[in-house]
Amino acid sequence: MVARGRFITFEGGEGAGKSTQITRLAARLSSLGLNVRTTREPGGSPGAEIVRHVVLSGAASALGADTEAMLFAAARVDHVDSVIRPAIEAGEWVLCDRFTDSTRVYQGASGVSPALIGALERLALQDLAIDLTIIVDVPAEIGLARAAARRGDGVTDRFEGDSLEIQQRRRRGFLEIAAAEPDRCVVVDGTLDVDGVEAAIWAAVEGRFAETGALAQRPV
Ligand code: TMP
């Protein structure tokens, strides 16, 4: 029987630098001989990528925040069932760029009730547990400036263009989740340089998994 893999999610506001860090953590875990898979939400499976286009283009915003939340959940059900759960059962370490906390924070900030968000979360997760959530925290002004620099002349997606006040509320939302669930979440200072953030994330991963032997070097 293959040992179960692990599920690590990355969360944070716009321009937090999650993607760079996911690539770096994946390389580090792979160098230990672990099987690593990186993925993202919304998306990560063919069906969910279609929904990604619908929600991020803003095409669904006229349907209201509850419907948008249901679309994110529909994408997540497909992603979990077709990619994440099978990978973890096959022993892979799955690193996911955004997951359920983004729904709590973004759709929560758009007025979706905690009851609906909770129900959608249970629907998508079933018995799936997140082993570790890394919240990359940056002040909203810094994140927005980074996202704008990365975008260049490109257009903002459905959520990037929201006001500074909304982005600040989202930042507080992520920090509140971290405070409420300290066993699952670690907050990392995303204003450090890229190497500094990587080191902080690695310390969190070692702290969480080293003593269980899960990180033990395997033959590559
Ligand atoms: P990203 O590619 O920058 O991560 O863009 C995804 C956007 O979608 C980001 O603005 C956050 C938003 N989002 C939600 O609003 N709810 C969700 O459940 C997820 C996964 C993302």
Automatic annotation (TrEMBL):
Entry keyword set: ATP-binding, Kinase, Nucleotide biosynthesis, Nucleotide-binding, Transferase
Reaction equation(s) it catalyzes: dTMP + ATP = dTDP + ADP
**Where do the coiled-coil regions begin and end?**
none
Query: Does the record bear Heme in its keywords?
Result: no
Q: Cite the Gene3D superfamilies for this sequence.
A: P-loop containing nucleotide triphosphate hydrolases
From which organism does this entry originate? Pseudoxanthobacter soli DSM 19599
Q: What is its EC number?
A: 2.7.4.9
Q: Which NCBIfam families match?
A: DTMP_kinase
User: GO annotations under biological process?
Assistant: dTDP biosynthetic process; dTTP biosynthetic process; dUDP biosynthetic process
Q: Which Pfam families match?
A: Thymidylate_kin (PF02223)
Domain of life, per UniProt, equals Bacteria
Gene name per UniProt: tmk
- Kindly list the positions annotated as binding ATP: G12, G13, E14, G15, A16, G17, K18, S19
The GO terms this record gives for MF are:
ATP binding; dTMP kinase activity
Q: What does this protein do?
A: Phosphorylation of dTMP to form dTDP in both de novo and salvage pathways of dTTP synthesis.
User: Sorted alphabetically, which InterPro entries does this protein's record hold?
Assistant: P-loop_NTPase, Thymidylate_kin-like_dom, Thymidylate_kin_CS, Thymidylate_kinase
Q: GO CC terms on record? A: cytosol
Indicate the family of this protein. Belongs to the thymidylate kinase family.
**The name this protein goes by in its record:** Thymidylate kinase
Which top EC class applies here?
A: transferase
Note the SUPFAM superfamilies from the entry: P-loop containing nucleoside triphosphate hydrolases (SSF52540)
Whether Transferase counts among this entry's keywords is yes
